[in-house]
């Protein structure tokens, strides 16, 4: 009887989650990756030739053409960074030239932008990638050019760290909403603080007080793990393992936590899947970075074990939630609590349907989340082979879907690379094509960039190249 119950549970879990393909390897993706980079180069060129930059940074497509949408300037680095990643993947100099020249010409304001939490997006995608290419020997070493990139990254990290709210148990880099607001996605901007710190920089404040950027990054990650990720125990006893809230709200008078909230998600009590994906990727890559630091340096911040424990718990929880609350092919709907999902029936027991009549999918969450799954799988390879295999193979399964139709954009007139991305469903910003009831068929700068990033990561694994990380730029 016990055996039958265990079998029934296993079958049930197999049905209602990503159907992980344990037989897939990176070699099986070789053909799709080759096609991906071919299409990617065409899209980069098309945007460069056709987009009117006088209208602002390209954000997402409407009827296949990139347009802008005023909120914050957080996507320009993805545009030029995409060209740099394209050079990295295929070695065509025109992409490097385009990315490098526009980084110099257009990205300076992003270094000193005091109004956003997006420095780890804009500036590591441009200055960071260019410095990384130099450190990896993919472009010629030029001392003045290296100094230029390093200076940009130093200042960017310090400016980002200056958006700071103290709370009783630490603090966080606050979002563009203001000092009360901790966004789950800001964890990916912790990278810029880490890079700036590794380059020997500090944030200097009143009375010449020197603020340690590693300290601020680690405190921000702990706040994210404590207040944006739920575990189903302790304070979260009513909730479930791995759910995330887009935003955590604090009382700025005393720093105390007040409630979860959502901007781009449905509610603070449901999971906006792109926010979930940011956490998956952010915790996994910061675990990798932590390995590069000495025990002595980490002792001042609680020690390696304490830091690794909370990061690994958050990484596992969010990756588990993604696996268990995503359709069988690995592409999630935009929010796991979206109000009309029930009209889709047993939607977790079959592949996602981007053309349904009720709720959109979000392919950009898949592009970001897949990288988190792959990195966590690699991180655990020496300590937990079973978990390592689960996460890594789940990541490969997602990519196998994402790099194929209907998600890869093969229409030469469409400027986007990855279709069915969602920007802001609650605000109604996403395009609903004629004849459809929901938004579909469009792309986003962040979705296209992160698809390129995870494609480059996978390409490096396939080619047995240097392991791709954000901190290769400070090695």
Describe the structure.
- The protein is mainly α.
- It has a single domain, classed as Glycosyltransferase (Alpha/alpha barrel), CATH 1.50.10.
- Helices cover 48% and strands 6% of the residues.
- It has 15 helices and 9 strands.
- The protein has helices at 2-15, 30-50, 76-90, 93-106, 108-111, 119-135, 143-161, 190-198, 213-227, 273-290, 295-299, 304-324, 363-379, 385-402, 445-463; strands spanning 60-62, 65-67, 164-167, 170-173, 181-183, 203-204, 210-211, 247-250, 257-261.
- A 3-stranded antiparallel beta sheet has the order 5-8-9, with helices on one face. A two-stranded antiparallel sheet has the order 1-2. Strands 3-4 form a two-stranded antiparallel ribbon.
- A hairpin with a 2-residue loop joins strand 3 and strand 4 (170-173).
- Helix 2 crosses helix 3.
- The chain starts with a helix and ends in a 12-residue tail after the last helix.
Helical segment count: 15
Number of domains: 1
* CATH C-level name: Mainly Alpha
pLDDT below 50 for ≥5 consecutive residues: which ranges? 1-15
Approximate helicity band: 40-55%
CATH names the topology as Glycosyltransferase
**What is the CATH-assigned architecture?**
Alpha/alpha barrel
């Amino acid at each position: 009887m016990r055996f039958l119950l265990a079998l029934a549970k296993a079958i049930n879990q197999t049905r209602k989650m990503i159907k992980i393909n344990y037989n897939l390897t990176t070699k099986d993706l070789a053909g799709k990756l080759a096609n991906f980079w071919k299409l990617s180069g065409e899209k980069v060129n098309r945007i460069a030739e056709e987009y009117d930059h006088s209208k602002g940074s390209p954000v997402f497509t409407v009827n296949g053409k990139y347009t802008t949408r005023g909120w914050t300037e957080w996507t320009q680095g993805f545009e030029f960074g995409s060209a740099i990643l394209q050079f990295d993947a295929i070695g065509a100099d025109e992409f490097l030239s385009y990315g490098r020249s526009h980084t110099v010409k257009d990205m300076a304001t992003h270094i000193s932008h005091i109004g956003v939490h997006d420095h780890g997006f804009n500036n590591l995608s441009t200055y960071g990638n260019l410095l990384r290419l130099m450190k990896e020997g993919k472009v010629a070493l030029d001392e003045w050019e290296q100094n230029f990139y390093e200076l940009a990254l130093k200042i960017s990290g310090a400016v980002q760290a200056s958006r700071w709210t103290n709370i009783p148990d630490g603090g966080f880099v606050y979002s563009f909403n203001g000092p009360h607001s901790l966004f789950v996605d800001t964890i990916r901007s912790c990278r810029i603080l880490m890079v700036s710190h590794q380059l020997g920089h500090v944030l200097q404040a009143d009375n010449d007080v020197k603020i340690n950027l590693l300290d601020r990054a680690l405190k921000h990650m702990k706040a994210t793990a404590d207040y944006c990720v739920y575990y189903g125990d302790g304070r979260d006893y009513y909730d479930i393992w791995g759910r995330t809230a887009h935003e955590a709200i604090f009382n700025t008078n005393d720093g105390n936590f007040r409630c979860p909230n959502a901007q781009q998600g449905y509610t603070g009590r449901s999971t906006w899947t792109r926010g979930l994906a940011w956490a998956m990727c952010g915790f996994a890559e910061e675990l990798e970075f932590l390995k590069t630091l000495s025990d002595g340096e980490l002792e001042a911040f609680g020690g390696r074990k304490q830091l690794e424990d909370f990061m690994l718990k958050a990484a596992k929880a969010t990756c588990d939630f993604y696996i268990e609350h995503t359709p069988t092919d690995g592409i999630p709907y935009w929010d796991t609590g979206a109000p009309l999902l029930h009209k889709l029936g047993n939607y977790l027991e079959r592949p996602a349907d981007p053309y349904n009549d009720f709720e959109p999918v979000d392919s950009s969450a898949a592009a970001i989340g897949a990288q988190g799954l792959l990195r966590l799988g690699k991180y655990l390879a020496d300590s937990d082979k079973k978990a390592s295999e689960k996460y890594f193979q789940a990541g490969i399964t997602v990519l196998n879907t994402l790099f194929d139709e209907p998600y890869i954009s093969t229409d030469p007139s469409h400027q986007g690379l990855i279709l069915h991305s969602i920007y802001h469903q609650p605000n109604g910003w996403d395009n609903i094509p004629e004849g459809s009831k929901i938004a579909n068929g469009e792309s986003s700068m962040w979705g296209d960039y992160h698809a390129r990033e995870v494609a480059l990561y996978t390409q490096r694994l396939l080619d047995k190249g240097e392991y791709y990380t954000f901190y290769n730029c400070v090695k």
